[in-house]
Amino acid sequence: EFDGKLESPISKSNKNGALLSDGTLIAKDGIYDINLKENYSFLNIIGDLILVGDYETNTLSILNKDGKELKSFTFEYMPISASLRDNVLAVVLSDNSFVLWDIDVNEKLFSSNNATSYAINSKVASPLFIDDAVVFPAFDGKVVVINLNNFQILHTIALGNEEYFNNIIYLASSGKNLIIATSNKLMTFIDGNDFSKDLNIIDILYVNNKIYILSLEGEVIEFDLLLNELNKVKFQYANLSSIIISDSIYTLE
C-alpha cells in the first residue's frame, strides 16, 4: 500500500519526462535536480545529456545530469521537441520547421519549413534517428524522413489533413519499421507496406513488438505491427491517462 505525493507540482511534462515547479526533473531513468527557471521547458534526455528549451530566448541548451549547461544554441523560433545523436541535433521549432544542427562546429546542416499549425496536441513526439536517417514529426499530420549522408528528403508520410490538433504525438521504430500516431490515427510502415487505423488516441506505447492504445472511449487495445487487434478491454465511462507495460498493463483513471 502506498500513499504519498510529489513534493512539488508538475509544471510541464511530455512523453520523455516531467518537470516539477521546484526544478526537479523526473525522467525514465531517474530523478534529477536541474533547477530550471520558469521560462525553461524539458525536451528530452539522451544518455547523460538533458535537452531543455528557453521560451524567452528561443534557446536550446544541453545540460549534464547535475543541471550544468554544456552548450546552447539559439533559433529563430521556440524549440518544441528535440533529439541528439553524436554531434547531430534534430529540432522541431514552434513554426513547424525542422533543423539539423552540428553541435561540434555550431552550424546548420539542414532546415525545412512546413505549413503553419495554430493548435496542436501537447503530446508532441521527438525526432527519431534510424540508421543513416532522421524522422521528423510535424504539426500538420506528417513525418519527414531525412538522409543524414546528403541531407535530402527521402520520404514524406501524411497521416491526415485535419486543420487543428493533427500533430504527430508518437514516433517509434522497430528496426527500419515505423510506428506513428496522431491523436486520431495510428499508422505503421512494415517492410515497405503501410497499415492504418482511425482511433481516438489518449496515449500509445510500443513495447515487445506490440502496440498499446488508450482510447477516448475508455478502451485499452493491443495491436500487432500489422494493426491486427489482439486484445481489447473497455472500461465504461473511464477517463484513462498514460500507460506503462511491465509484467502487466498499468494505467490511471
Largest pleated sheet: 4 strands, antiparallel
> How many DSSP helices?
0
- Using only C-alpha atoms, the radius of gyration works out to 18 Å
Indicate the proportion of strand residues.
Answer: over 45%
Mean of residue pLDDT values: 91
Taking pLDDT < 50 over at least 5 consecutive residues as the criterion, the unreliable ranges are: none
Class inferred from helices and paired strands = mainly beta
Bin the helical content: under 10%
Total strand segments? 26
Order of neighbouring strands in the sheet with most strands: 1-2-3-4
CA distance, first residue to last residue:
18 Å
- Secondary-structure element pattern, one letter each: EEEEEEEEEEEEEEEEEEEEEEEEEE
Outline: globular
Structural description of this entry:
The chain has 253 residues and is an all-beta fold. Helices cover 0% and strands 55% of the residues. It has a four-stranded antiparallel sheet, with no helix packed on it. Strands 5-6-7-8 form a four-stranded antiparallel sheet, with no helix packed on it. It has a four-stranded antiparallel sheet with strand order 9-10-11-12, with no helix packed on it. Strand 25 and strand 26 (249-252) form a beta hairpin. It is globular and about 50 Å long.
List keywords for this structure.
single chain; about 250 residues; mainly beta; four-stranded antiparallel sheet; about 55% strand; globular
Summarize the SSE layout with pairings:
Elements: E1 10-14, E2 17-20, E3 24-27, E4 30-33, E5 40-46, E6 49-54, E7 59-63, E8 69-74, E9 79-85, E10 88-93, E11 98-102, E12 107-112, E13 128-130, E14 133-137, E15 142-147, E16 153-158, E17 170-174, E18 177-181, E19 185-190, E20 193-198, E21 201-207, E22 210-215, E23 219-223, E24 229-234, E25 241-245, E26 249-252
Antiparallel strand pairs: 1-2, 2-3, 3-4, 5-6, 6-7, 7-8, 9-10, 10-11, 11-12, 13-14, 14-15, 15-16, 17-18, 18-19, 19-20, 21-22, 22-23, 23-24, 25-26
